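hey can u check if this looks right to u? its 359 residues, i copy pasted from the old doc so theres a chance i mangled smth
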Amino acid sequence: MGKDGSISDKEWERFLRESEAGVPGAPEEPSARARSVARLPRGESGRPQGWRTYEPPRRRRGKGWYVVGLLAAGVLLVVALIPGKLMGWFGGDDGTPQAAESEQPDHPPAAVAAQRPTLDEPFRGSPAARWSDGAAGIDMPAARATGWLNREQVARALDRSRDFLVASSLDSGVLRGERPDKAIELINPHQDDVQHYLLTAFHSPGRKNDPLTLFSRFDKSKVRLVGDVVKTRGRITFHEGKRGALEVTADVTYVYPVTRAGGGDGGEVVRTIVRRETVMSWDDPARVHTEPGTFSLLSYQADTTNGGCDTYTGYFTPAFSAERTASGGPETDPYDRSTSMTARMREADGEGCGTATRS
């Protein structure tokens, strides 16, 4: 491997030969499945509805103001008495951070006022404005003895599972396009199909081997992240899997605000939203060919909004207003976590690029 993490043609050819031949005498090897769906924001030129149409309320004169004043006073009185029940009428955005997502919600986030994000407020006009920053937005369950692991071992496995999420989707270097070596080191090196995916994804990315299904990367020559905060919301769960393994599922939505690297378009800020579900198996080495401190990938799937559609460069390619085109695919709210990833993938199966109702 080269100093920059790239793979020489000779190494690549040797890897392909060994993958086809297989490893004789190897114990049981786990396998993984991967899926990915891409979506574009909805609206004129692909923008979410309301971005171009939002205007401050116009001043009105005459006797009508007396009636409006009475109605407003009544509403304020009711809100003061029962604020929690009525906050959703106005979008639910009271500026307070949301509690961690300890279980799957039963409804999508309430609508918020249609406002364009800015360099100073990149999450403006988004439910993510109330989400937590980085790893703090990933709810962690209490550890308990599971399968072949005791409680302390489960706790360590859960921490390392979260470390993988940070290294794959939040690490500043990886977000700038670097190879996610720290994340890859946590993956079972004996899992042949995943190792083949990893080498192929970074050497010659394509539809079947897209690194963005598992990792978040932007081409720093084209876009840059706005600020150093990525908003997240999601949770980690676990149960006993096959052969007594600890099976960990991470279902997390990441919101990345970006602008053009060269500062074009007047500093326009757009957001790339990625929801990933990653299932990791901490296997018993007596039953599965693995290495200490690594997990086997059972499945990994992603649903991406404004990260590029049918583009396989190995980097997210968010579209700005001048580049967006309308999409006729199925509509989905990228902030809605009340639908399971399995259901979301099933709805989008075979539909190509979908349409996001907001961004």
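The helical segments are 9-21, 64-81, 83-86, 151-169, 172-175, 181-184, 192-203, 341-348.
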